[in-house]
Amino acid sequence: MGKLLKVGLFILFCLSSLAGCFDAEDIENFNIPLIAAYDVAENREEGVDVTVLYPNVAQRNREFVEKISGKAIGDTRAGRGTRYPSTLLLGDIQVALYGKDLACQGLGPYIDNYVRDPRIKKSLFMVVVEGRGDQFLERAHKINPYLGFEIPGLFTSKKKNQFYAVTTLHDFFHAVNTAGKNPVVCTMEVLPNGQYRVSGTAIFKKDRMIDVVGMDETIPLILLRGEEGCCGFIPFVVKKDGKVIDKGTVEINSKRKVRVQREGEKFIFYIKLKITGRLVEHYATNRLILEDKNCIKDIEKALAGQIKKEGVKLIHRMQDEWRVDCLDITKYALAKWRKEIKDVVEEETFVKNADIRLEVEVDIPFWGAKN
Amino acid sequence: MDKSRFEITSKQLIFIIVGSEVATGILSLPRVLSAEAGQHAWIAVLTGALVPLICIYLIDTLYRGFDDPDFVRVSHALFGKALGSLLVITFILYIIFFQGIVIRIFAEITKIFLLPRTPLYIILFLILLPVYYAVSKGGRVVGRLNEILFWILLIDLLVLLVLLPLGDYTLLLPLKDLDYKGLLKATRESFYSYAGVEILLILYVMVRKKEEVFKAAIVGQFIVIFFYLVTVVIALLIFGFEAIQQLTWPVLNLLSVRHVAVLERLEIVFLLFWLGVGARPAINLSLASAYSFCRLGRLSLARYYVLTSMGIALAIYLVAIWPRDLIEVFQLANYAGFLFLLTSLGYPLLYHIAKFMRKGVINHGKTA
């Protein structure tokens, strides 16, 4: 009987713990930001504007944003405390948006609070906004009532959709603090009608943004960076004697292999992209795949040529304009000669003088149910 | 208290060895080691492990000659009553100091990650209360507790393994270019994490089958090495030796880099389990010191053991509350690491020398 009582009390204790930390009333007293935007302060000489998007909670019928200015991010929390009675809970923040101007200044100081605060998860996504982050949030949330869930969703599901950079706070922090690494961050824009979209990729030299590329260059960039498990749709055009004989779309995923050789002070990087795909559509419907053996081969060849051309263009741009390793290949040289080259990998000449060779192999083994 | 309540099985000894070593040290180990040895930090885990392994060997060979391998009795037999007692008291003081540091670091982690608004002295009190309770129940209960907590520790290790696919192997390379000086320094830094094995000096007598002690202790030690190796390698694969320097508790940061469906925050899951695991060394070593204190003063275990364990817990509390901030705590942890080297190798060696010199004088059957 005594044992039964003890077990009963234990179960009662467990059940009472299952209720969790907050009840319905508690939740109403909290503000739980889902997205925060950071910009160079508009109305003060130095400082930062923080705009926060809160989810739909019981007392409000839609998401809402609030904007506070301060000398630093922590200071805006103090400012918030004098205006709003509710408690701020940072544990569920999903996305940090950074205005372009702030990104150009360097994001190091503006991620410090995130890394320092154990309540904030290091898997939160970082985004650079074309223009200002506050304007993005204010405009976009007006026509998107669930923005706080939709934008994070873009990054958690991106591997199934399209090639664009997905950078978490950890990725950014790791790249900034590791020799030879530089982060790339997804950029987003809001259209005048309030619709938002991924617009390209921000190229960083350590924590400072140095350029932005559009979606056309983002695809080869992500492929060349070798982001594991990415897949997306790529259109192709097959030409013969200058004439278009077929076009369509292939859904691909890619694997990257990098090999590095050294000839004195010169480093030769061999990047090999192995792309496998599924034919989504092709317009030359008169070419039956099972009968015309060259049909798939032509598509593979065309796609390989197309990706290589875009990749080589990007490599040249990286070496001539940016002069930072945004392809994440320096790590392979460091893995071989870390002690000797650790001090020179951050120099512009390292990337500029490197010989980067690209090889693309495309294999389309699946073409669906139609011949 | 019945003396049989201080009997443990050799299987429980395995868990006690693991429980006495794996605690707060593992959470900062990747940072501490890689600060000195860079990408070779994992090698320091192996070189550092030589000390506890030698310690186990020395203790086992020391006690093999004695029919009643009780630490206090052996100390008296080899060094006489005065010097022997002094050595035992010094050992107890070392345990109190070391566990004070361990408990303080544990409380700091709890404050930073779980209870940021709770005063430190309250957290320390809340940690030491169950420690005292477990110790007061005697060796058998502590043995069983270690067994349960071991499996919980295993869950924590599995949680860490979830991160393996995120790792970048180039961060461990190259394997050549080993900086021997750095490796030596890193090995020294690892001592804090290996402290706890010296508990065997006291627990040896409690193990039912003495012939199994060596094997059990070695198995326990290899489990510890495995835990440390896995943790350091995963931390290096995820952060690399450079970025890791920016993080005070890299293992806890490690767990927040990946979003996991349903569980959401892996580090909270890890910490939930860790709350039991983190206080284990204090439980084990407090048991050892309270037991030795009673034996030294020839106090009846039935009447004075509980009171002694309360006194030990109080002393640990005072040491834990003493450092001003985390910087001071880490400095003291560094000293504690040196003290571990002195006690884990120094004590058994000293006892071996005394044993060698007094060969023939001591009747092993009647050591007291």
TrEMBL record, chain A:
Swiss-Prot/TrEMBL keywords: Germination, Lipoprotein, Membrane, Palmitate, Signal
Residues covered by the Spore germination protein N-terminal domain: 23-189
Gene3D superfamilies per UniProt: Nutrient germinant receptor protein C, domain 3 (3.30.300.210)
Any Pfam family matching the protein: Spore_GerAC
Keyword Membrane: yes
Boundaries of every Spore germination GerAC-like C-terminal domain copy: 199-364
Keyword Lipoprotein in record: yes
Cellular location(s): Membrane
One record GO biological process: spore germination
Protein topology in the membrane: Lipid-anchor
Source species, domain of life: Bacteria
Leader sequence residues: 1-19
GO cellular component, one term: membrane
Entry-linked PROSITE patterns: PROKAR_LIPOPROTEIN
Family classification: Belongs to the GerABKC lipoprotein family.
PANTHER family listed in its UniProt record: SPORE GERMINATION PROTEIN B3
Full protein name: Germination protein, Ger(X)C family
TrEMBL record, chain B:
Any one GO CC term of the record: membrane
InterPro entries: Spore_GerAB
Membrane-spanning segments: 12-29, 41-63, 83-107, 119-136, 148-171, 191-207, 219-241, 261-283, 304-323, 335-354
A Pfam family the protein falls into: Spore_permease
Keywords: Germination, Membrane, Transmembrane, Transmembrane helix, Transport
Keyword NAD: no
Organism: Thermosyntropha lipolytica DSM 11003
Membership in a protein family: Belongs to the amino acid-polyamine-organocation (APC) superfamily. Spore germination protein (SGP) (TC 2.A.3.9) family.
Subcellular location: Membrane
Main location: membrane
Topology of this chain in the membrane: Multi-pass membrane protein
Gene3D superfamilies: Amino acid/polyamine transporter I (1.20.1740.10)
UniProt protein name: Spore germination protein (Amino acid permease)
GO BP of this protein: spore germination
